[in-house]
Amino acid sequence: MRFICPLIVVNNIETSRSFYENVLNQKVQCDFGENVSFEGCFAIHLKSHFSDLININKNDIVQKSNNSELYFEEDDLDNFLQKLKGIDSIEYVHELKEQPWGQRVIRFYDPDMHIVEVGEPMESVVKRFLSKGLSIEETIKRTLMPEEFVRQCL
């Protein structure tokens, strides 16, 4: 058995597809109408169709449950943050913050209130710390990354 992808339920396929394509630069892999899969290995599924498939009332599908997120990494996080600021409809979970391991991330909701996290790659975090003068050992301790990974970032 192998895991294929997470699937999130959406109210409007066109709105959600546009969000993921235009805000998060995702590319559609397959469009089946009620179900759209992206090259980034996740899919969106129309709520009314999904509820019929699993035989539950569509009102039993909860929005804004805050119990999961889709995680993306962006090499140019600062540029992405500027792009987000230009989108008035974005509702933030939180503004840019630094995680305890040093990674800068931002979280916001998609049009169906699923949490989306965008963070800088850990390679960027390691390089940032090394460029600020932290030693390899200090960087390992700060980022929790293995020594081999930190050395590969040199």
Automatic annotation (TrEMBL):
It comes from the Archaea. GO terms for molecular function: lyase activity. Keywords: Lyase. PROSITE patterns: VOC. InterPro entries: Glyas_Bleomycin-R_OHBP_Dase (IPR029068), Glyoxalase-like_dom (IPR025870), VOC_core (IPR037523). Residues 2-121 form the VOC domain. The keyword Cell inner membrane does not apply. Gene3D superfamilies: 2,3-Dihydroxybiphenyl 1,2-Dioxygenase, domain 1. This is Lactoylglutation lyase.
